[in-house]
Amino acid sequence: MEHQEKLIQIPPIEEIHKFNELMDSSYELAKKLLPFLAKKRIPLIPENYRLFYDYFLAVNPELNRQINDALQHENLFTHNVSQRLYKAFYDVDQAKANVLAEMGEQIGNIGHSLEINLGQSLDSAGRFKQALFDSAAQMEDGTLAVDDMRDMVDSLLVETKSAMDSQTALAELIETSNRVIASLTAELKDQTRLANVDQLTQLFNRRYLTQSFQELTANLKVDDHLGISLFDIDHFKNVNDTYGHAVGDKVLMICAKIIKSLSGGEHMACRYGGEEFVLLSPGYDSNKTAALAEAIRQKINDTQITIRGINIPLTLSAGVSSYIHGESEEDFVSKADLALYKAKNSGRNRVVVYQPEMSKEQE
Question: 3-class SS at 363?
Fold first, then answer.
């Protein structure tokens, strides 16, 4: 047998340049990343490499925020910390991608099965129609013998049963297909919800806040109101340092539950990052937003948390502002952040409404 030499396909020169640029940039990033991980005593495992690769590229502000918070508050960047962050930022998206892939495959299989069964059903219906046509022609002739009549009836019965069986099989396949699609749709919806929800507090996450802000403001008229409250738990670092992160997580969940219960369904409560929460209030001006924020602050102030017989005081500060038509999400949140900064510097455990002079003080 004649030996055929296998040809090596050389990529276009543009692709080679892109590959070399990617290699160079990855190498430069690795030279910064690896010493950083060693200095911070962060194990070089695949999860950490991906987390800090994206951290150095700054592709996700919320990821950088949470990593900075972990580096500040954790004594060691343990495996549990890695897994928590990796699960929050990557596992949910991968699960969603898996569901989409499964949905695509199963819907493709369903479509193929439907195509085959529909073809069989149409063939059976065609044969049945032809049998009826032939029988009608023979009956119009008026020369059918009794035996021929019996054969014709038997043939019609066979074709009728075949057509009915095909229709039944097609109906059953459609019913099964609808159930499968409904199940996959529900699973995809659940994965989408998980991608938008903070796993600890069960409030919406920062990514969903950005998405919702764009949707809310897209249809706002000039005179429409949209309020924002930015909450920060007072002395939260002391809680973590004194009682441990398990207690800190419990405090976060308690605050989230209170914010969600007092705000109701018309508002959107989010965990903004670390110990900060955001509440978007459609239809609320600064005064109404501040009144709601004050009710939340008071409720949390009155909540008693007891750990091992020790009462842990729990308070939060809040900055409140309202949307100005056409401003960006960054400017919108920044105003609430300036008001929160004022609340913190004024003694904490209070609500402050943004005033324009606060921006001038920062200049």
Answer: coil
Identify residue 179 by its one-letter amino acid code: R
191: nearest Cα among 62, 100, 268, 60: 100
Same domain, 327 and 273: yes
The neighbour count for residue 298, using CB atoms within 10 Å, is 14
Q: How many CB atoms lie within 10 A of CB 203?
A: 25
Alpha helices for 196-235 (secondary structure H):
206-218
Give me the CATH number covering residue 349.
Answer: 3.30.70.270
Residue range 246-261: average pLDDT? 91
- On whether both 344 and 268 belong to a single domain, the answer is yes
275 tagged catalytic: yes
> Rounded to whole angstroms, what are the CA distances from 28 to 20, 21, 42?
12, 11, 19
Question: E-assigned strands of 143-274?
Answer: 226-233, 268-273
Give the position of tokens 């914010």.
259
The DSSP element (H or E) to which 310 belongs, if any, is: strand 310-312
| Structure tokens given for 195 | 């991608």
Residue 113, domain member (yes or no): yes
Dist CA 103 CA 240 (whole Å): 43
- Cβ atoms of 204 and 278 within 8 Å: the answer is no
- Each residue's pLDDT tens digit, 316-350: 999 999 999 889 888 999 999 999 999 999 999 99
pLDDT at 2: 46
HSE-CB for 244 with a 13 A CA cutoff: 4
**322 Ramachandran zone, left/alpha/beta (phi>0; psi -120 to 50):** beta
**Number of structural domains, the chain?**
3
Judge whether 323 and 214 are in contact, CB under 8 Å: no
| From 275, 276, 327, 330, the catalytic residue | 275
d(C-alpha 332, C-alpha 206), whole Å: 14
- ∠ CA 262-252-258 to the nearest 5 degrees? 10
